[in-house]
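Final report, results section. Input specification for complex C-07:
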Amino acid sequence: MVTFVQQFLNGLTIGSFYAFIALGYSLVYAIMKLINFAHGDLFALGSYVAYSFLVWASAALTAALGLWGALAVAMVVAGVSVAIAGLLMERVAYRPIYPAGRLPAVVSALGVSIFIENFIMLVWGPRYQAYRSEFVPVGYFQIGELRISILQVVILISAVILLGFLYWLIEKTTFGAAVRATAQDRATAALMGIDFRKVIRFVFTVGPALGAIAGVMVGLYYRQISFSMGWIYGLKAFVATILGGIGNIPGAMVGGILLGLLEAMFAGYVSAAWKDVIVFAVLMLILIFRPTGLLGEKVAEKV
Amino acid sequence: MRGWKALCGVVTLAVFGLLAMAEEPILIGFQGPLTGPWAVEGDWALKSVQIVVDLINQRGGVLGRPLKLVVEDDSGTPRGGVMAAQRLVTAGVKFVVGTYGSSICMPSSDIYEEAGVLVISYGCTAVNLTARGLKYYFRTSGRDDSQARFFAEYVVPLFGAKRIAIMHDNTTYAKGVAEETLKYLKPAIDAGDVEIVYYDAIVPGERDYTPALTALRDADPDIWYYTGYYPEWALLLRQGKDMGLDWKVVRAVGSNACPISETVRIAGVDAVAGAMITQEPLPAFIKDKYPKAKEFVEAYEAKYGEIHDSPWATYAADAVYTIAFAIEKVGKVDPKAVADLLHSGQVIGEGITGELAFTPEGDRIGVPYSLLICNEKGETELFNPEIHGKLVGLEE
Amino acid sequence: MNDAAILEVKGVTKRFKGLVAVNKFDMLIRERTIHSLIGPNGAGKTTLFNVISGIYRPEEGKVIFLGEDITGRKPHVLVAKGIARTFQNLRIFPNLTCLENVMSGQHCRGRCGTWSSIFRTPRQRAEERRIQEVAERWLERTGLWEFRNELAKNLPFGLRKMLELARALATEPKLLLLDEPTTGLNDKEKEDIMEFIGGLPEMGITVLLVEHNMNVVMGISERITVMDMGEKIAEGTPEEIYNDPRVIEAYLGREEAVA
Amino acid sequence: MREIIAGLRNDPRARRIAVGIALALMVAFPFFASAYWVDVAFYLGLYTLLGLSLNVILGEVGLFNLGHAAFWAFGAYTTAILNTRFDIPTLALIPISALATAGFAWLVTSPIIHLRGDYLCIVTIALGEIVRLALNNDPGGITGGPNGIFGIDRPRIGGLVINTPTEFYFLVWIIVVICAWALLRLQNSRIGRAWNYIREDELAAECMGVDVRAFKLLAFTLGAALAGVAGNLYAAKMMVVSPESFTFMESCLVFMIVLLGGMGSVPGTLLGALVVSLFPELFRPLARYRMLIFGIALVAVMYFKPAGMWPRRRATFRSVIGREAGKA
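Structure output:
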């Protein structure tokens, strides 16, 4: 039972990382119908930016704000700078190409992904970088045999808060309604006076920023970051996006958590080596029987 | 094309004439992963090889001719390896040091074999590499089974361990060591002396290994052998520590691709202290034993700062010595004659890691291993049963 | 005139998530006639149309074509049997030439597979020639001959509409289903296309015309079925329909509400 | 330059001469170039073949397949296993690998063929990963795990062993030329047009009598068969196959070959393969910067040439019913 709860918590933590990244995919897809392959690499970039920032400023910041304060500042720094990178990317690599169709945009996205990955390698070197022990809060709660680290708790709580805030923003505010309207029908939304560019800017700010925050969390949680980690996280988060139904905001969150739980349970109870095979097989099965994802709405094509 | 090549040759000759070199240099090819996931190992190996080449040249070269490095990147992929090998062959190189990674080594060594180029690999430990009956392929490193044997027949009895956990990461090297370990443990298992309580693979490149570690903890092993690479090893130790595992109770032993300094840098001292690795002799630990090692470490530190602790880069350096000694011995720059000499099994000299001699298959004879431990300060020490054994808490 | 029924719709019901789009609908179309299906927007005309052409499978009821039950058969099977259709919002193949567009109609009349296409067997060559010939004839008849090598997306709207018609005719249909063929056209184009459609029964083609504009179909149809809220409210000759109070109510009542 | 290309397009005789010259250059190439460049040309051929095979699926039918490495791997492993276990000569395994891979593709794509666009894309990614991970996990001890399988024979025809880079160069390019020829013929036939109808508008194609499901499956099996051939050649050339050669990145590279060249364009595929396989070689002196530049180049090509570098031009048919018919 203790093992099960432990695995469940592990799954929730992995799942919230996926959920953060998946949201970026989903938002961009909802608005632009574009799979932003570079999104995973933006996540890695966020992790590195925060790493450098902490190396540079953590001593002074920790003295002034305490460790948690320093980490919060690092997250904001990473979020803002990666959001700028995201906007830049949209301006340079997507906006001029997007009108030519979706497939050229996909190649362009792959190109940006390769670029960012190698950019990270060139700037920070091919070696794994590690979040030093002094950045990372330690400590844990002990409940019977169960051991939960403080970091895990903080990650889960901030995930709930951030995702909740985003949910509120998209589902309950006027601006969120505009985003949803654009996702549904861009032309009609434009007729209703919704500024498409503003929505795009929103999507390319929030998505990368969330990805960057996930990057910092991953760095803190696992300590070690690498230039190539964007691929695997990107891929998994993309799977989560599809699981939840692409373009569906709450779906991305549910998909991420679900994927994390699935992975933890399979790794814990079946086989770590076959874990990913099983995860991908489950994904295929779900799509065969629910071709638009778990929460995806069945869209009948207009004839 | 031929004319162009001749022109190139003329230009090269002219340049060297201007440099007033007495003799045409002997080309030594270097093939290694300078980009890609193993770029660090490639970088270290190249630096080490460069040091040895410089040392030899300072003494007047080989047969009075200087050595000259021709460097090719194989980016750590099989296809990259083939392209790099083909480039070196085309460049007219007759002796090559390379490469890191068994599955990259395999196809490239075929190309060298066909071209009659002698190649000595430094970081390829798959047993079957030398089982192919190649004439021109040798390695200065050990094989998966030699390390596995060290663990099974020395380390396990050393701690009197009964319950053994083996974990690998499904890569060529790691799975090889794990399987060979199982093979060497078999007599003890059959005799009922030891028991395998955990055997599974993790997926490299992931971040969260707590699920696997939870399963490991529940298996309650005395000793845990992880065969794999240091990034994952560091995470495993860190997360294991956070889960409350104690390396004095569960003796954590990594295989030789888990250098302690790298592991400490990633995981922090507190997580790694007490963990061990089975390792080929590192230059820092053998520099008082062999003069060549001392000289190498000093030259390396003078040029690049701190010495690396990768055995593979050291083996790469020794590959250069092997080539140099053998050429001196046969008295001509001829890969065939050198290969014949190496196949004969005689000791051709003493390098950085000790005597250099090879079996008829091309394997190194007598690769020593050692058990290293990370102390409380995060430094690497030779394991000493007198000191470290006391921490075990296993012996009655 | 031939009175044999070519298509029979018997008690067809189609629902979408509880919403009944077509309710127990009956209809009979006779060979070599132009039969119109009219009704206000949202009456369920296009849904019924999609049921007949095989895109939707009805929950209840049957569709019988030339005495054979074809309910729920896939569209490509129905095309081979002789039912062709056009689309309300134009669905041509934009990046192919007009000729290639029209050749698609002949696809179902071809037999040659992968190997004979690679080796260009005599049979394959003959077949290709026939496909092209039929397509060219229809391009000629629809006045699109000069655009045959033009990409379809470069054509003006009216001609694209014509192209879609030619493409459907190239399948050598017995029954042609036209979904609002005149929407978006100017008066001259409307007149041309209706004149062209009017000539089809003489070529042995039965036409089922869906329109929401009653005036368009009055002069051309032999029979008219009127649909509202998924149900049939009237059927008869144009005169009968014109004077039917229920039809007037359905149309005018709705129009007032909208206005 | 523009006039020359236009001339080549419109004059079939000039085109034939140009193709002839190109073929002659290809035959002569290995006798002038070094072994290294011949090997580069071999891999160019291999990637062209892979590009052509994906072009059937992605270019002609518009099915987003980002798991093409799965088929390539399947062909390579089929060859490796049958050769090392049963000593079947690798050349004889070319058709067998093709058939086996086609069968595999038919089996795994049948249940997913109805998925649209991005959903198909993600399922193919999953498929590629499943195949790679399964090979790595060594099911039943037949794939050799991460070590892969080694000791694959060189291809031989009678007494001639295909061994040197030049011989491999000819082997791969003969196959590429045959495939390109066959695919060009398919393009201008009922089959090729049906594929294009599906790509342009699936529903309209279905309503014009195209059995969409069957033709999609045909494209997948045919494309997979060609990828199986490429796998066979790869295994024979490397003499070893291991899972790390068939990563997601490889699927992406082949995907990019098709889109860089131009969807459904055979010469475009050659051009795309040229970019993808030559770029890292030509920019070797830039070492660590070359992939960075490659990324920028991808964006740049899509900016200036969104339809690809050599987009397919629709064929103009010579009229069957006569020119004057139109005016009548």
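DSSP finds 14 helices and 14 strands in chain B. Chains B and C do not touch (no CB pair under 8 Å). This concludes the modelling results for the funded period.
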